[in-house]
């Protein structure tokens, strides 16, 4: 406990906490109401929703361009400017009632998010050691879950009283103001290394690249098709979806603080093995269940598993040259989105034939990741053995 309090007292923690807190409020609030908004206001079908999700992930492919921008702008300032962009896109989306307008706003919001998320990961791994970073990541995720729970509670209470544009406004303005605050903060240089400003691709990081790619693909099944299943097939209302959103983040708020300790205690391979084995079972259940309560429970369970994805990052930190962390995080976000761009569009087309097909895709991604994580310990041993 004393160690956790000590590393939280560093100025970088306060900065990361404020920035990631409000970004999560905007992003998770968007995720909670977007599908209902798209179906009820913009009147989109499954294929259109899938395509917009693919467009939403396009900026992730451009995350490697972050390395060029960082030659001109320091990481902290660029993160804050990116978070301001998230706020602008979120506010504007609520005023769109046509397909292309939503598409453009989604692109703006997403560009800001992907830059900010990549920098957040980089700053955390640069400023904290391999034993500290899981604790900090857990603390940040717990705090952002608290913020997401708060905005979800507001949306739940206002769902029948305030139009959609008002809900988007609440989320976006808070995010924008947090970005303004961040721009005004002094830069905090990394503690232990000076990151490279060029793209890094190394054979030794191949397992990290593959797991990141599969994680991006699997995540899209949850973001797009699990929600679409609840809204379209099982008829969940905005109030019901915000309730599930609240439940998700209440559980995450409580449990995220223990993720770092769990990673340190059991290791990345064991945790991710459990995660992907159970996710495979979840996707099978999604495909064949006709029980409304069961699919809602699976949705909550799947969100809980997502939090364990941080183990991929902490694994990378253990095998990486510290100077490679910033550029490889940018490359990793890009690779994460190679599949993330394709999966929603392909899944949306498959959905029009049979809603089960996207979940069979998810099953394949989970099983592939399950096989890959079995090589983690071998890679750790190889990268940490003393030089001859």
List the helices and strands and how they pair.
Layout: H1 2-8, H2 11-40, H3 46-61, H4 66-69, H5 75-93, H6 99-127, H7 132-158, H8 164-183, H9 206-233, H10 238-255, H11 259-266, H12 268-288, H13 292-306, H14 310-319, H15 325-353, H16 357-373, H17 376-384
Protein described:
This protein has 388 residues and is an all-alpha fold. Helices cover 79% and strands 0% of the residues. The protein is built from 17 helices and no strands. The protein has helices at 2-8, 11-40, 46-61, 66-69, 75-93, 99-127, 132-158, 164-183, 206-233, 238-255, 259-266, 268-288, 292-306, 310-319, 325-353, 357-373, 376-384. Helix 2 (11-40) runs antiparallel to helix 6 (99-127) and helix 5 runs antiparallel to helix 6. The two termini are 38 Å apart. The mean pLDDT is 81.
Keywords:
single chain; 388 residues; mainly alpha; 17 helices; 0% strand
Query: What characterizes the major β-sheet?
Result: none
Radius of gyration, in angstroms, nearest whole number = 20 Å
What is the residue-mean pLDDT, rounded to a whole number? 81
Order of helices and strands: HHHHHHHHHHHHHHHHH
Low-pLDDT stretches: none
Query: Total number of β-strand segments?
Result: 0
Percentage of β-strand residues? under 5%
Q: Ends: how far apart?
A: 38 Å
Into which percent range does the helicity of residues fall?
Answer: over 70%
- Overall structural class, as computed from helix and strand content, comes to mainly alpha
Figure out the total of helices. 17
Shape: globular
Summarize the structure.
The protein has 388 residues and is mainly alpha-helical. It has helices spanning 2-8, 11-40, 46-61, 66-69, 75-93, 99-127, 132-158, 164-183, 206-233, 238-255, 259-266, 268-288, 292-306, 310-319, 325-353, 357-373, 376-384.
């Amino acid at each position: 406990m004393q160690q956790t309090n000590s590393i939280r007292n560093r100025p970088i923690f306060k900065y990361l906490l404020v920035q990631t807190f409000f970004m999560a409020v905007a992003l998770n609030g968007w995720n909670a109401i977007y599908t209902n908004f798209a179906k009820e206001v913009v009147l989109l079908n499954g294929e259109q929703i899938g395509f917009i999700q693919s467009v939403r992930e396009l900026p992730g492919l451009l995350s490697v361009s972050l390395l060029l921008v960082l030659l001109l702008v320091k990481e902290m300032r660029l993160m804050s400017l990116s978070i301001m962009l998230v706020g602008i896109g979120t506010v504007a989306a609520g005023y769109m009632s046509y397909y292309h307008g939503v598409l453009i706003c989604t692109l703006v919001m997403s560009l800001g998010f992907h830059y900010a998320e990549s920098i957040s990961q980089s700053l955390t791994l640069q400023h904290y050691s391999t034993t500290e970073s899981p604790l900090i990541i857990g603390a940040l995720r717990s705090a952002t879950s608290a913020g997401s729970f708060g905005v979800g509670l507001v949306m739940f209470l206002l769902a029948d009283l305030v139009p959609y544009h008002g809900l988007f406004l609440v989320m976006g303005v808070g995010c924008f103001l947090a970005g303004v605050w961040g721009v005004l903060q002094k830069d905090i240089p990394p503690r232990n290394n000076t990151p490279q400003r060029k793209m890094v691709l190394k054979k030794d990081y191949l397992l990290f690249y593959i797991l990141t790619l599969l994680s991006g693909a699997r995540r899209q099944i949850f973001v797009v098709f699990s929600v679409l299943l609840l809204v379209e097939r099982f008829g969940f209302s905005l109030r019901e979806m915000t309730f599930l959103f609240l439940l998700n983040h209440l559980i995450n708020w409580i449990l995220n603080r223990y993720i770092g300790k769990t990673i340190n205690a059991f290791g990345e391979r064991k945790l991710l093995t459990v995660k992907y084995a159970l996710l495979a079972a979840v996707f099978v259940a999604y495909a064949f269940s006709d029980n409304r309560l069961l699919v809602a429970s699976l949705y909550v369970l799947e969100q809980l598993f997502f939090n364990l994805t941080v183990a991929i990052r902490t694994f990378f930190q253990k095998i990486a040259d510290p100077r490679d962390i910033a550029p490889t995080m940018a490359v990793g976000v890009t690779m994460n989105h190679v599949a993330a761009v394709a999966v929603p569009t392909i899944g949306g087309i498959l959905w029009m034939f049979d809603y089960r097909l996207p979940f069979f895709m998810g099953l394949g991604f989970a099983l592939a990741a399950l096989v890959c994580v079995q090589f983690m310990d071998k890679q750790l041993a190889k990268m940490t053995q003393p030089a001859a």
